[in-house]
Design goal:
Thrombin, subunit H; alpha+beta; 8 helices; 221 residues
């Protein structure tokens, strides 16, 4: 059997115009899709043609392999702080997906970008990501109370534990929301009461400010 005594490398680089639906995929998925489209016509045809041409000079191809990569280059990456501000409930991997989906048509105006990213993030993943917490506030009777609850990182709502849902909090009094096990204090507001208990909310901006700690608590739950 002949032993290889030379190595040949041939590289081509193609600039592509790819449909946005393909750009929404991960880099690995994009490569798989392109590889499937190219198929054996390219990956088997190239070695065959190369072997025939080199054979004219008495050269034999003993083995071959190929490497393929694909990178999107059409638009600038979105600032990470914009992703965090709009969707602090998403993981880092989900940030990558959100950026691929939203980057091509992202508006430049910061306020419009925030709404745009928020809309895309909720369409991508709007599951309730809950973190145990305690709500400190003043009851309508004037008594201070600490009520166990769950903070929804996705939309900032706070759900009081079922046994305490009939307790009425003062609407015009500030609330403090403390996630369990974290040195974090969030300011909450009570907009009233329903059959499901007090309507309490924490702003997405506050969740974004403490995103790493809150998301870590959600992962550990």
């Amino acid at each position: 059997m002949s032993k290889a005594n030379a190595k040949l490398r041939i590289e081509f680089e193609f600039d592509l115009a790819i449909p946005e639906s393909l750009l929404e995929r991960t880099r690995e998925d994009l490569c798989r899709s392109l590889a499937g489209t190219l198929g054996s016509m390219v990956f088997q045809g190239m070695p065959t043609v190369t072997g025939k041409q080199l054979g004219k000079a008495g050269i034999r191809v003993l083995a071959h392999h190929h490497h393929m990569s694909a990178t999107e280059t059409g638009s600038a990456p979105l600032p990470r702080e914009a992703l965090v501000a709009a969707a602090p409930h998403l993981t880092d991997d989900e940030f990558d997906q959100l950026e691929r989906r939203a980057r091509a048509k992202a508006p430049e105006d910061p306020a419009a970008l925030h709404k745009y990213l928020r809309r895309h993030a909720l369409a991508m993943n709007n599951e309730y990501r809950m973190v145990a917490c305690a709500v400190q506030g003043l009851l309508s009777s004037g008594t201070e109370a600490t009520l166990p609850a769950l903070l929804n990182l996705t939309n900032g709502s706070v759900l009081i534990d079922e046994k305490d849902r009939q307790k009425r909090l003062k609407v015009d009094h500030p609330l403090t929301v403390r996630p369990n096990g974290l040195d974090v204090e969030l300011e909450g507001s009570c907009a009233g009461h329903t059959l499901s208990g007090p309507v309490i909310e924490v702003s997405i901006a506050q969740i974004a400010r403490h995103r790493d700690a809150l998301l870590g608590a959600w992962h550990r739950a």
